[in-house]
Amino acid sequence: MGRSSTSVDVAVIGAGPYGLSLAAHLRARGVEHRVFGEPMGPWKHNMPRGMLLKSYPWASCLSDPASEFTVKSFCTERALPYHDTLTPLTLERFIEYGEAFRMRYVPAVENKVLTALEAVGGDLRATFDDGETVNARRVVVAVGLQPFRHLPRDVARLPAELCSHSGDYGSLEPLDGKNVTVIGSGSSATDLAALLHERGIPVSLVARAPQLRFANRPRNRSFIQRMVAPLSGIGPGWALTACAKYPQLIQLLAEERRIRLANPSALGPLGGAFVKDRVIGKVPTSLGTSLQGIGIRNGRVLLDLVSTGGARQSLQTDHVIFATGYRVDASRLGFLSQTLLRDIRLVKGAPQLSSHYETSVPGLHFIGPAAANSFGPVCRFVYGTHHPARALAQYLSSILVRSRPALQVRPFDRTVLP
Ligand SMILES: Cc1cc2nc3c(=O)[nH]c(=O)nc-3n(C[C@H](O)[C@H](O)[C@H](O)COP(=O)(O)OP(=O)(O)OC[C@H]3O[C@@H](n4cnc5c(N)ncnc54)[C@H](O)[C@@H]3O)c2cc1C
To answer: N or C: which end of the chain has fewer CB within 10 A?
Structure first.
């Protein structure tokens, strides 16, 4: 294991849509930086194969400096079928697009894991799983949702062969031959229920919600319909359009307002439009049902359930998947030193961010879902990559490049583009 120490202006932690988009803008501006993480890692390993994106194809683009490499242009270049709204984007196609984006704009991603981050002098010192330490003037954390999986408290101590989180699945093969219960009513729950059923795995779905809600199936809309409820990148209506377009304005609102806006009821729990017909009438459901207790009997999971009317029932199953979502909580980022954790001002577990996505620790920034309490719901979507990529790259360039000779960024060599 090599142990070396280097320094860099900006370390971007994460190579998902947010990290890659920011890196593309930093590179174009000649800001010295390094990017760490597995390119599109969670999309490859933590979302079930066969999943359809819930966001429209036009709203699932990473951010490049010229806004030219969209999902549409990627599909057009490769003669792949595409429609802005009427046909969904598959997970597999989105991963291909993300990989092509990386090759084109962020060729030098380093696939290693940040294990420790601490403040040293005026810099931040990042230590990686290969032993390298990097002193960075600025660190941008873009680690997505996976560190923040939420499981009910009693569940975390059950063995992994009996119980898992929806974010544990890329391949569903480990569940073959089992009888599975999915708990939840959002898109992860309904996606998994549909995919397990179609794989021939006996599956049932238990949810507290009295009924499952799904997004409306996309259709061509009249001018009046578009005026009354425009399609924003994150959902229909003027309120979501404002949130999607102007996250910088949300950051100016009072704390309570921002937090309320970060989780609007319009956004969920809500299944994807194309999943409804694959679940309703196909997957047995117990709705209006809460989990009261969970135990193990004869090597199987025993669920103690109660309906809203108070009726109790027991359900035995081989495996339970909790599709219970994610809760941003900075204390779950094991790489943050105790001192940093103490010094980062948190609002409901998430870092409170300045207009430059900077925490109360100078030089430490967060983008992506962890920024939603400051910049609103768009941060929970790929569509939200555009603002931080552009605005933060511009800010970092203004404070860092000024003090260095300009880097020569070679024009892209079109002959080697993917
Ligand atoms: C099941 C599911 C379906 C979704 N569907 C959609 C959808 O259809 N449309 C949409 O807009 N959004 C969707 N989302 C939300 C989507 O995940 C986020 O919008 C998006 O992935 C956030 O991008 P990101 O770059 O912040 O994080 P991610 O894409 O999660 O990438 C995180 C990156 O951080 C890296 N990383 C993590 N920890 C470390 C570490 N310690 N050291 C180094 N690197 C690290 C990872 O390797 C990875 O490169 C979905 C989420 C889930 C869970």
So the answer is: N
